[in-house]
UniProtKB/TrEMBL annotation:
Protein name: histidine kinase
Domain annotation Histidine kinase: ranges: 176-389
HAMP domain location: 115-168
GO molecular function, one term: phosphorelay sensor kinase activity
Record bears the keyword Membrane: yes
TM regions (residue ranges): 21-43
Amino acid sequence: MTAVGSIARLRPAATIRLRLTVLYGGLFVAVGVLLLTITYGLFARQLQARGRGVPRPDPPVLSPYANDPGSIRERIVEALAQQRAEALSELLTQSVLALALVSIVATALGWVMAGRVLGPLRDITAAARRLSTHNLDERINLRGPRDELKELADTIDAMLGRLAAAFEAQRRFVANASHELRTPLTVQRAAVDVALARPSLESLLTMARRIRAATRRHEHLIASLLALARSERGIERYEPVDLAAAVRDALAAAAGDIELKGLRLAHALAPTPLSGDPVLLERLAGNLVENAVRHNAEGGWIDVRTEAGPGSVTLHVANSGARVAPEAVAALFEPFRRHAPDRAGGAGQGHGLGLSIVAAITHAHLGRYAARAREEGGLEVSVTLPRGAHTPVPAAKDARAAPTIRA
């Protein structure tokens, strides 16, 4: 360590309060010196003008002392000059003393004022030091006029609220993910234990089928988690995509389940070109269709439509099914949240990630989504996405496609 570094470490740190106080005091002294200089100059000029006003006799009076250097007039002039010098000296001395005294008072007041102004910052610092992952409910709650510091404190309070919600969502996500990942392993272990307890060809085949089903569930969960993580990272590269084509592929993939449940399908798929991530957009369409099929009633219906607007495209998916409370709709877009009992597990049931992945993909594409619980039962979901740059707009005649009804 160098000598300069040692001196710098020994020197006390200049706080903002100290720097503000020095600034206030320095400005006051500078203005005071300027005012003193101007006052001194004006006062000296006034005294000099008065000194030039010594009267001369008119006509001149002849006196035997007229040519004497120590004449009365010269003595008067000298006396006035000395008096002027003494007055200026006294003015300067008194002014400097007054300036020094007032500067000390002004600096002290500046220290107090800086402390009061910076008081909210100390509250903010203290609140930040008290924060941890266990007490994110701490808030500053600064009171006072609506100034810059109040806005800063309110902004930090809002940020703390978002952080608390994010940490809570993360904790809930980790807990639910751990539970969902552990369930297939528990099923596999139980199947193996049963087969080992009574080994036979039938028990081994049953174990193999259960392990295969649990493995498929495990793979589907991991794929969903990866899709959710990828969508939350944002879009790295945009490519031209037709959302209507992605919906057609999703409907084709779900055709077997639609037929098995006897669902009536109505779809009107207008061309909806946009720029985005093809894999994520296919997952968005697939999740919406899968959600509409999975949580539908036997013999129910599904309505799927795509629309192209001037600067955006919209996908509407509606389905019949169990009634959903309006206040519970928003929670369905959170990870691992299921509403009805048929969402809570069992063969062929989901993990509660479908709509949360839809929300994440929509946000990644800077879009918006809306959902509404139907009074008759079921759900209506609309996703609107911006077209993005360099996306061609379809012709007006293709803006809406003729609906297709399928039983």
